[in-house]
Amino acid sequence: MALNPSEDKIEDVPLNAIKDVDEPVTTSLPAPVSAPASKPKSKLSAAAIIPVWMALSVSVILYNNHLYNTLDFKYPVFLVTWHLTFAAIGTRVLQRTTRLLDGTKDVNMNKDMFLRSILPIGLLFSGSLILSNSAYLYLSISYIQMLKAFTAVAVLLISWISRIAEPNRKLAMIVCMISFGVAITSTGELKFNLLGFFIQAAAVGFEASRLVMIEILLHGMKMDPLVSLHYYAPVCALINLIFLPFTEGLAPFYELARIGPLILFSNASVAFCLNVAAVFLVGVGSGLVLTLAGVFKDILLIAGSVLLFSAQVSPLQIFGYSIALAGLVLFKTTGGK
Fold it and tell me: Where in the sequence is the signal peptide annotated (predicted)?
């Protein structure tokens, strides 16, 4: 489940949040990011929390892929709904037993804010989660991670079109660089699936729109990833429950006995722990450090998919993805966050 707070400008959306969201979906349960969040007080160092975050992020994606393609539990809408329900309960337990959600005291939630901000962003969040998870039914983990590099480009393009940010030549060159790298990556994909490509492209569009919508509707609010999840998880779970009968029906419920409660509980627990780790993550590292950590995590994930799931990665894909990653790091070092 994406993970860091954005700042005053849309160019300041953290790249690791854009890509994970991931992570969540992601695949993982992507943590909804809002405008500038105060860094949580943490005694943990970056050297301690970043490896934990990376391990959890990789584990969520590999675990979900194992469910979909190894255990043949091909019900992404149900799985996302289950993750969100678990997160909704988990955040409320943490609110009553820890200080991790003290940020909810700074949020003045009312009916008007819910209808005008939380609900529309929740709809985009649900779409992003469902589509990004559905893509794993058609595409390899490695290729999906490569396509996610385009999310930064989508955020910039939408922000330029909506005129909440002004285009400039340097960012335009970086957009072209990342786009070129992703295009080469797609050309080199050995098991290209057009439907899966369009599903992942739509997921990127939903996620980018969500991030821009957060900047427009929640500008100036202070929410860390876990506080955001506290408000969005129950909304998105209800939205998904509405769509579940029309997409997967009762089929996933018939499969629960075969999958077993242990797998479902452990899968949702890992996804939720990823969001908890995100709270500490945003407080221990600079934007560039977190960007590089996200890049390294994606490289490990691609390598893991090759070793564990025999995913095929061509030399042309490696070349294209290297260009896209270089563009992402360049984006960060030239002022984007």
Answer: none
DSSP assigned state of 9: S
How confident is residue 27, by pLDDT bands cut at 50, 70 and 90?
Answer: very low
Sign of the CA dihedral with 252 first, then 137, 125, and 82 last: positive
Residue 6 has pLDDT above 50, yes or no: no
Domains in the chain, number? 1
Range of the domain at 247: 10-31+43-333
The answer as to whether 4 is a domain residue is no
**Ramachandran class of 296: left when φ > 0, alpha when ψ lies in -120 to 50, beta otherwise:** alpha
Residues sharing a CB contact under 8 Å with residue 336, sequence separation 6 or more, in sequence order: 11, 12, 13, 15, 152, 171, 174
Structure tokens at 74: 């091909």
The owner of tokens 């070092």 is 333
Give the DSSP letter of residue 71: S
Cβ partners under 8 Å of residue 207, min gap 6: 2, 18, 21, 30, 124, 128, 132, 151, 154
Task: Specify if 5 maps to a domain.
Answer: no
